[in-house]
Amino acid sequence: MPQIKKILILGGGFGGINVLKTIQNKFKNEPNIRISIVSKDNYFLYTPMLPQVSSGLIHPSDITIPIRKLCKQAEFYQASISSMDLEQKLVTITRTFDGKVRALDYDYLIIALGSNTNFFDNKNIEEHSFVIKTVEDAIAIHDQIIHMLESAAQTSDVDFKKKLMTFTVVGSGFAGVETMGEINYLVRESVKNFYPSIGEENISMNLVASEEFILPELGPKLGKDAGKYLRKAGVNVITNTKAVDAGEDFAQLDNGEKIPCMTLIWAAGVVIDPIISSLKCKHGKSGKLKVGKYLRLTEYENIFALGDCALITNPSTGEAYPPTAQNSIHQSATVANNLYSMITGK
Ligand SMILES: Cc1cc2nc3c(=O)[nH]c(=O)nc-3n(C[C@H](O)[C@H](O)[C@H](O)COP(=O)(O)OP(=O)(O)OC[C@H]3O[C@@H](n4cnc5c(N)ncnc54)[C@H](O)[C@@H]3O)c2cc1C
Fold this sequence. Notes:
Number of strands: 21
Number of domains: 2
CATH topology of the largest domain: FAD/NAD(P)-binding domain
Bound molecules: flavin-adenine dinucleotide
Radius of gyration: 22 Å
CATH architecture of the largest domain: 3-Layer(bba) Sandwich
Number of helices: 10
């Protein structure tokens, strides 16, 4: 392998980091392989436990790993991807700390940039809701819950107290369900143990799901069981319903119900970043990158895509794999093996 090959990984989440780890092992001590990774944050975030940060059960440092610690044989750039020129094999990045722009060239590109929160162009919901995607989001939710508890403990106006103690989560995928489970526990335990003046009867927890059952990633059986479990824990699981509007103190549902609440958490879907959806290649309806069976873009055999930003079809069902950490990890092994075979011919 005499010629230097440059591998560039975009995204330091489940997909990108697991590709990095595997190819570093495969190309261990191989001087002609140059690996680089670019990501907005300089840490890997274990998102499935982000809801536990929002409930204060764990600390952000419990679920973050510095990416540099994982770079055994790779260069890390903390930066935002500003553009990609797939023809010229160039990625432009903007440095996080001073906004300086530079271009990185590559021979092989791995796109694992995840997804963004989808507000479906609803500005009111965007303005009045919390989201759960980053460490900062989880801390903001935690602060809000404590603020609501302290406020409710000091008001004798029962209607206002109920409004302060009503928490509505929209979205019944992993992010929404796990967050509801965590905040339900935090609020109920806090009221029982530390805020007796609030009264448990004033707590209201709502989980709004657009489908017939929650956790569609897991299928109807497990989804229905999870719904039963949450109901038993005191959560009002509202299925087949969407939130269509929101204000400072309410969430409006499409079944006509208006929920008075001071805390709305939006976890109702993901959207692909325009940097990806505007690339000149094949996309799914959502803007995800369409890849073939080797997880390469059909137009560029040196470019792989995986994780939430890729449209990958299960050959036995014909259905797209859902955007989960588990799927990203599985796909990372496929990408790393295929990349290794392409470069070495083995
Ligand atoms: C709260 C929550 C709970 C979840 N729970 C579960 C669960 O229990 N089980 C499960 O399987 N899945 C769960 N998921 C889903 C899971 O997190 C995602 O499916 C998974 O992270 C997707 O991996 P990925 O590598 O595609 O994207 P990500 O892990 O999101 O990684 C994308 C990376 O790209 C970086 N990036 C994005 N855009 C740019 C840019 N323009 N420039 C530079 N860097 C950029 C990001 O900072 C990030 O590091 C959960 C998600 C959330 C939010």
